[in-house]
Every structure is written in C-alpha cells, then in structure tokens.
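Hi support team,

I'm filing this because I wasn't sure whether my run with DD3 finished correctly. The job status page said complete, but I'd like someone to confirm that the output block is well-formed before I use it downstream. Pasting the exact inputs I used:
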Amino acid sequence: MAEGPQAKRRRPEEGAAAGDGHHDGAGAHFPLAELRVLRVLRESARDKTVFLHGQATSPSGEGTDAVVILEKTPFQEEKVLDLLKKHTKLELQMSNDIYSTYHLYPPPELSEIKTTVVYPATEKHLQKYLHQEVHLIRETWEDYKDITLPFIQSQSFSIQWVYNILEKKAEADRIVHENQDPSNGFVLVPDLKWNQNQLDDLYLIALVHRRDVMSLRDLTAEHLPLLRNILQEGKEAVMKRFGVPSSKLRIYLHYQPSYYHLHVHFTALGYDAPGSSVERAHLLADVIDNLATDSMFYQKRALTFALRADELLFKKFQEAGRV
Ligand code: DD3
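And here is everything the job wrote out:
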C-alpha cells in the first residue's frame, strides 16, 4: 500500500456528467435500489468487479438502460487497523493446526464499494462491457485513411464529458493542474476509475484544450510543444499533489483510444491498469522522440491494436480483407 499526502484524505465522490451534456451529474442521485437488474455483463474474480445491465424507470414511466459497475477497492493502510478494531462480527470458517480462516464483517464506513453508473446507457455501452473475443489488427496508414478514419467520422461518439471538464462545467474542483494555452495547454484530472483513496491505483488523464486532435494518428512535430508540456508539467503536478515521482509513473497514449479527443494517461507504475498492454499503450516519451526524429512518423508506420469481434470497425477491416 502506497502512501502520500493526498491519499490520507477522504473526499466525497462525485457523479460523472451524463452524456446529455448536463453538468450536475445524472449519476449523483441515481436510484440504485430501484434498479431492475437484467443481467451480468461481465465479472472478474481477480479485479473484484461486476458490471450489471439494469433498467431504471424514467420520469415518463418507461424502462431506461443503465450500466452499474461495482468494484471492491484496494486497502488503505491507515484504515486496516480500524478494520481489526471496529469489525462488527468475526465468523470462524475453519481451523487446522496453526491455520484458521474467518469472515470479517466491517462496519459500513470501512466497506465501501466504488460504484460507477452510466445512465442512460446506449447499446454501445452495453456492448462495450460484454465479454467478447478480440483480434489483433495491423493498421497501415492507408488502412487508417480508408477504413478507420471514415468509421470514426461516421460515428457519433459523444465527448460532451470532455468538453464539460475543459469548460469547468464538471469536475472543476478535481482539476490537479491546468495549462490554459489554447493550442499547447491541457487539463490534468483524476480519471473516473480512480477514487483517490490510495495511490496504488493512481490514474489521471491529461485532456488537451485543442479540439482538432483525435488520436496518435494526427500527431506531427507541430504538437511537440503540447506533448512536452503534458509530460513535464504533468510529472511535476503529480509529484507536488500526490508525492509520486515521475520514475513511478507510466505516462502513455492509447491507440485505439476509447474517445477521440487527444488525452494522455498517467498511472502508477505498479498498477496493471486496463489498456497498458503493448498492443495499446504508447509511452509519451517515446511518442515525443519518434515525432522529433520524423514529423510524419505516425502518418507512415503501421500500428497494431486489438478489436472486439462484434465491433463495427472490426467488420470494416474484415470487409476490406485486412483480417
Ligand atoms: C467513460 C471514457 C469515459 C463509461 C465510463 C467512462 N474521467 C469518463 C465521464 C467523466 C470520465 C473519465 C465512458 C466519462 Cl465508466 C463510459 O470516461 C469522466 N471523468 N474517464 C473523468 N475524470
């Protein structure tokens, strides 16, 4: 368990802004008890998570889809002693020689479960969390122009939540650092996946202010000042706020990203964050060096990534005979 200046403090959780553009967060007062659970989309014993597909009754009386993600969070060192002292019940499971196991029942304040609500959820959200077979794609620049780019442009991915953060309409009090420059500036905020209670699973994202860069594929030497700002100022801000040195950070971009507004991930080095595999993560420092060597690096080389078999983009690659 890692410690740091901020890890000790508790903060109230905030709801994420919903896709409708409202900034007060529809998830903040979501009526969880009234949710009708339809199915388990995914569960992981290792990650201690469960993804539920449910329906809530909207004001008009019809059932509206929701995704509810439940996750048991890592232990906080300073709370473990409390846990032993304040448990409400200790039930012996078995005893054998010097070994024994128990069920410990913690009081509510020590047994929180991180809950993420996507509501209203679209078919795409439901599909995203269903377990699926994946295939590796090797995308050339021509593939990008002929298949991937038209696909991205044909989709209406809502990134209202990104604009809400950039415009201080949501999560404004969570901003860790900002460089306000319209072309070389960015906002650094804790990712939704991180509750900030412990540094073990530290996860922040840098969202760039400019809105004309969708992904790694758009980057050229023109973007070097922006990328260098993110790397340098991001490292400094994380050190200052959380006491985590840059040697303990994994700073990278995803390709494909899950939303097409340029962003950079900052995660704890010891944390095996989803999407940190070689076929998705591109270290920011390497991206910077590649662009400094060749401005057109990402408009020339083939990039590898995994796609779900049920994804439209996968079908497009199949139709083009590229899988
Ligand atoms: C998202 C990718 C997007 C479901 C889920 C997450 N960090 C966010 C809204 C606010 C945020 C994020 C989409 C959506 Cl669980 C569908 O992520 C967010 N705020 N990654 C922050 N700070």
